[in-house]
Amino acid sequence: MPAPNSVGPRASITGESLIVAECFGVQTPTFQGEGPSAGHPALFIRLSRCNLTCTRCDTKYTWDWSQFDPLTESTKRSVTELVQWATSSPVELVVITGGEPLIQQRHLASLIRRLLAAGKRIEVETNGTIAPDPALLIDGVRFNVSPKLSSFGMQENKSIVPAALEAFVASQRAMFKIVASSVADLDRIAEVAATHQLAPIWVMPEGTTAEAVIEATRRLADAVAARRWYFTTRMHVLAFADTRGR
Question: Per the count of CB atoms within 10 A, which of 133, 191, 193, 218 is most buried?
Answer without folding.
Answer: 193
